[in-house]
Amino acid sequence: MARVAVLTVSDRGAAGEREDAGGPLIAELALAAGHEVVARAIVPDEQEQIAATLRAWADGGAADVIITTGGTGLTPRDVTPEATLAVAEREVPGIAVALVVNGLQHTPFAALTRGVAVTRGRTLIVNLPGNPKAVRQGMDVLLPLLGHAAELLQGPVEHGG
């Protein structure tokens, strides 16, 4: 089990002009898989606000995994990957690759996502697109990984060999 925080990045969602579909879906799927949802928030597509929330949650130790939704596309306002990389200590490129490979099985537009996966301290941070279909597909990839990733980040683990 992992403690999961969910950050929705959306100008219109933060302004109350659009209902957040991705964040609740991430929370629902994480809970159904036996994980605990410890925090949720919506912020606008502002790099420093995104980074500040990621830093606060990771450095506060409340979450093993932070999953973002939104802000991973090609428009000038899509800055979630930049904010995530700004707080990163280490990249976890295999997760981003797995998300794109899985997404490409459903749509060629998955190749346009710029989401990243990183660690900060003992927290894994993963960017998912904002589209609920893409969120569900991304969670299919992430859910089997979350518990083990959280365990690995908490400290030394004996690996069989």
From TrEMBL:
Pathway: Cofactor biosynthesis; molybdopterin biosynthesis. The keyword Oxidoreductase does not apply. Pfam families: MoCF_biosynth. Residues 5-149 form the MoaB/Mog domain. The keyword Ribosomal protein does not apply. GO terms for biological process: Mo-molybdopterin cofactor biosynthetic process. Transmembrane segments: none annotated. CDD domains: MogA_MoaB. Keywords: Molybdenum cofactor biosynthesis. This is Molybdenum cofactor synthesis domain-containing protein.
